[in-house]
Structure formats: structure tokens, C-alpha cells
């Protein structure tokens, strides 16, 4: 996609602002720093903190720590969040976290060491601390960790007028909420009403008569990935969270659910590339090396397997040297075709579009697509072998090997992630390595094997 003029202008302005901020930090010009940072959105400030070095970050925080609020802390990448919190005075941290809802506080705490967690917890009021500690008691990556405890609840027998009077007279309400949740006397949610319906309905209208059809609940122990799927699948804006007895304990809003989806997609992308899902551009050299070595080592082993296959046809390559130059073509085409099928399969598994019920249909489709693609490129390579190289039999070998490898690549791209998921593994974790190994091994074996049989 071409970059627009507006995007280039924004990037240029951001680069100039970054230089100006660093100049202000170096000059210890607090007034200039305030003028540059105060107008910025919390997300832009977080991006700026992530882009500068640790020493510059420390200098900036020492000069501008009064401007760091809860929104900035929640936007900062987890790889530097602890460093930022430790650099701030206790009173600044306390003021920042008091502004946040419990779900945002929990999100910050999850990535901190125990001393830094205590620093945050000590800054909270007693009621908020209890709510956060209760949320932290739920399993990691569960709905209980994702929910916010601040919920707007109304008895199921109320009418619109009573609800509006309650909302207007409430001393405290969440900064953002979309529904008023209806609950029975045992605090079990029975439905919810959007604020828009409340404002547009007559005062004497009963809340239970204007509830939304989309109402559903999730348990606090449900996995957050499942919750995010529900939001995406059923177009939810918020969703009540209940305990094992069905009592209301919190609510999850769409912004948190979408964050989970973004994290899942980012995790899949990194894992497909053989990189730790915790990798960040803020990581140091040693951390980066440590996270990449395991998959590089596995790739070294699989590459040796391919080398062993090639070694079995050493005499064939020695007699027909041109085969050595053509082998990478077969392997590369298979690798690309396998990656294409693999990417589609992993994405479909993540969104639950690929299931047991339609797996055979998808496998047949990929096999047919592999055969057709193989046939198309087989014709091209066959003609090239005949007309360019002047070796029609070599063209036949290239054509046959191309069909075989593209078929195998398409099948591997769908069957490997399906198999890993059935075994309980993340299909994004190791699929790429297995698929590439299969396409290389089969591609080399088919090409060199056919060359041995047909050309010698």
C-alpha cells in the first residue's frame, strides 16, 4: 500500500518532535518538555518513551514525571513498563494508578516483579486493592483477569425513570460503560440495556422490556481468548462476568476484548516466524539471542535432514551438474506454497473458521489448488527445460517434481497445523518448521529421484 502524503507528514512531525524532546531532555529544559508533551495523547507519549534509549528515558522521567498518568502507564509496552514505574516517585505512581479501572491495574501488575507489584498495590485504596487482588487470584489469561470490577447494575424490576434518576444521583460511575446490567435479588445477571435505549425510552418503560438480544455471560475462569472470540463472533460491546454460582463479579468491555485479539494475532505472527511471543524491539541483545536460538537450532537439524536426502543422490548430481542449480527452484516454490496454505490455516484455526466439520472440505480444496498450481508451473518449467536448456527429459523431471512438491506443500500447510491442534499444541508454534522441512525433503527427493530414474 502506498504511503499517503498525510502519513509522511505525520511521520516527519513525529521525528521532529522526538528530536525536540531529546534536545529538551539534554538541556534539562522542563518548561520546553512540558510544552512538547502535555498536548500529546497518552498512546503517543508511550510510543515516544519506547523509541528512546534507557538513559534518555530516565532523563525524561526525572524532568517530566508529573505528567505521567494512569493512561500513559497502561499504554506503555510491557517490556519497559517496570523500568518506568521504578523511575517514578511513589506519589506519582500512586496518583496514576488511582485513576485506572481495576482491569487496567491488573494488566499493569501482571507483567511486574513482586516488589513493583507491591508498589502499585500500596498506592491503592483498600477497597480497590481488595478488588485487584481478587482479580489477580483468577488464573492467568482468564476472564477474571480481563474484567473490570466497576459495574453499573440495576434491579430487574426497575423502569427507565428509576434508572436515570439513579445514574444522575450516583456519586461514582465508571469512566466508560455501555450497558446497565439487570440483576435478580441474588445478583445473577438477567439481561442488559444499552444507554441509548434508556435515553430514548419513556420513563415508565420497564428495563426488562427493552433488553438486548445479544446478552450473554462468561465465567470468570473462562479463557480470555474464548471471550475475545465471543465479542468478535456475536458483535458484543460488553459482557457480564459471573462466578461459579452465576453471580455477577465484573464486566468485560470491547476495548479489552479487542486488545486480546490483537495480542493473539501478534503472537501467532511471531510464532510462525520462530520468534518468542514475548519478543520486543526493546529487548537487549542477549534476550534477543536467547529467544531465537532454540528455533534456529531446530532449523539447523531439519536443514541437515534435507542435506542427507541430497547426499543420497550425490552420483546423480555429479553426472548432471545442472541439477544442483535447479534444486533451489523446486524447494523455494514448495516453501512458498506451504507457507501460503499454512498462514490461511493458522488464521482460520484462530478464528474458529476451520473446524472438524469442515476440515475435509478445506483439505480437498487445498489439495486441488496445489495440483492446479503445480500443473501451471510444471508447464512453465517443462518448457524452460526443453527450450532454454535444450533438455526435454529434464523439463519432464522439473514438471513432475513441481506438481508433486506443490501438492505436498498445500497438504502440509493444512494438515500440520490441524494435527498440532488436535494434539493440544499451538498450531502457530512449530508449523512453519515442519512444513518447510516436508517441502524441502519431498521436493529434493522427488526431483533428484525422478532425475535418477528418467535421466540416467
Please name the defining characteristics of this protein.
456 residues; mainly alpha; MgtE N-terminal fold; CBS-domain; Tetracycline Repressor, domain 2; three-stranded mixed β-sheet; 21 helices; 6% strand
Share in helix: 55-70%
- Average pLDDT: 83
- Major sheet, described briefly? 3 strands, mixed
- Which CATH class of the largest domain applies here? Mainly Alpha
CATH topology of the largest domain: Tetracycline Repressor, domain 2
SSE order, one letter for each helix or strand: HHHHHHHHHHHEHEEHEHEEHHHHHHH
What report would you give on this structure?
- By secondary structure, the chain is mostly helical.
- It has three domains: 5-137, Alpha Horseshoe (MgtE N-terminal fold), CATH 1.25.60.10; 153-272, CBS-domain; 285-455, Tetracycline Repressor, domain 2, CATH 1.10.357.
- It is 67% helix and 6% strand.
- The chain is built from 21 helices and six strands.
- It has a three-stranded mixed β-sheet with strand order 1-2-3.
- A hairpin with a 5-residue loop joins strand 5 (238-242) and strand 6.
- The longest helix is centred in the C-terminal third of the chain and has 31 residues, at 392-422.
- The radius of gyration is 29 Å and the shape is globular.
- The protein starts with a helix and ends with a helix.
- The model has no long low-confidence stretch (mean pLDDT 83).
Amino acid at each position: 500500500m502506498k504511503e499517503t502524503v498525510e502519513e509522511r507528514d505525520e511521520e516527519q512531525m513525529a521525528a521532529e518532535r522526538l528530536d525536540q524532546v531529546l534536545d529538551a531532555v539534554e538541556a534539562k529544559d522542563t518548561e520546553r518538555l512540558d510544552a512538547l508533551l502535555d498536548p500529546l495523547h497518552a498512546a503517543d507519549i508511550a510510543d515516544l518513551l519506547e523509541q528512546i534509549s534507557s538513559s534518555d528515558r530516565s532523563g525524561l522521567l526525572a524532568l517530566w514525571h508529573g505528567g505521567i498518568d494512569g493512561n500513559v502507564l497502561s499504554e506503555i509496552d510491557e517490556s519497559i513498563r517496570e523500568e518506568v514505574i521504578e523511575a517514578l516517585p511513589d506519589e506519582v505512581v500512586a496518583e496514576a494508578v488511582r485513576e485506572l479501572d481495576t482491569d487496567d491495574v491488573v494488566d499493569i501488575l501482571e507483567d511486574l516483579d513482586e516488589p513493583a507489584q507491591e508498589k502499585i498495590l500500596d498506592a491503592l485504596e483498600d477497597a480497590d486493592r481488595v478488588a485487584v487482588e481478587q482479580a489477580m487470584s483468577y488464573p492467568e489469561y482468564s476472564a477474571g483477569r480481563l474484567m473490570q470490577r466497576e459495574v453499573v447494575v440495576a434491579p430487574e424490576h426497575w423502569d427507565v425513570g428509576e434508572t436515570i434518576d439513579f445514574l444522575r444521583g450516583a456519586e461514582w460511575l465508571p469512566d466508560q460503560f455501555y450497558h446497565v446490567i439487570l440483576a435478580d435479588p441474588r445478583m445473577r445477571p438477567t439481561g442488559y440495556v444499552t444507554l441509548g435505549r434508556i435515553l430514548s425510552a419513556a420513563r415508565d418503560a420497564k428495563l426488562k422490556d427493552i433488553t438486548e438480544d445479544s446478552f450473554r455471560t462468561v465465567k470468570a475462569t473462562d479463557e480470555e481468548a474464548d471471550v475475545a472470540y465471543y465479542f468478535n463472533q456475536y458483535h458484543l460491546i460488553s459482557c457480564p462476568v459471573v462466578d461459579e454460582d452465576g453471580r455477577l463479579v465484573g464486566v468485560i468491555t470491547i476495548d479489552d476484548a479487542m486488545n486480546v485479539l490483537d495480542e493473539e494475532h501478534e503472537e501467532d505472527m511471531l510464532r510462525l516466524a520462530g520468534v518468542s511471543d514475548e519478543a520486543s524491539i526493546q529487548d537487549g541483545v542477549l534476550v534477543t539471542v536467547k529467544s531465537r536460538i532454540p528455533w534456529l537450532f531446530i532449523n539447523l537439524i531439519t536443514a541437515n535432514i534435507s542435506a542427507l536426502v541430497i547426499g543420497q543422490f550425490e552420483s546423480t548430481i555429479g553426472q548432471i551438474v545442472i541439477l544442483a542449480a535447479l534444486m533451489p527452484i523446486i524447494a523455494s516454490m514448495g516453501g512458498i506454497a506451504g507457507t501460503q496454505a499454512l498462514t490461511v490455516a493458522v488464521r482460520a484455526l484462530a478464528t474458529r473458521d476451520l473446524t472438524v466439520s469442515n476440515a475435509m472440505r478445506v483439505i480437498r480444496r487445498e489439495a486441488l489448488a496445489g495440483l492446479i498450481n503445480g500443473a501451471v508451473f510444471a508447464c512453465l518449467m517443462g518448457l524452460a527445460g526443453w527450450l532454454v536448456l535444450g533438455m526435454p527429459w529434464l523439463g519432464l523431471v522439473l514438471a513432475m517434481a513441481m506438481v508433486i512438491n506443490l501438492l505436498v506443500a498445500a497438504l502440509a500447510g493444512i494438515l500440520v497445523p490441524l494435527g498440532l491442534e488436535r494434539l493440544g499444541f499451538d498450531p502457530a508454534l512449530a508449523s512453519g518448521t515442519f512444513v518447510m522441512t516436508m517441502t524441502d525433503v519431498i521436493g529434493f527427493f522427488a526431483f533428484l529421484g525422478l532425475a535418477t530414474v528418467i535421466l540416467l
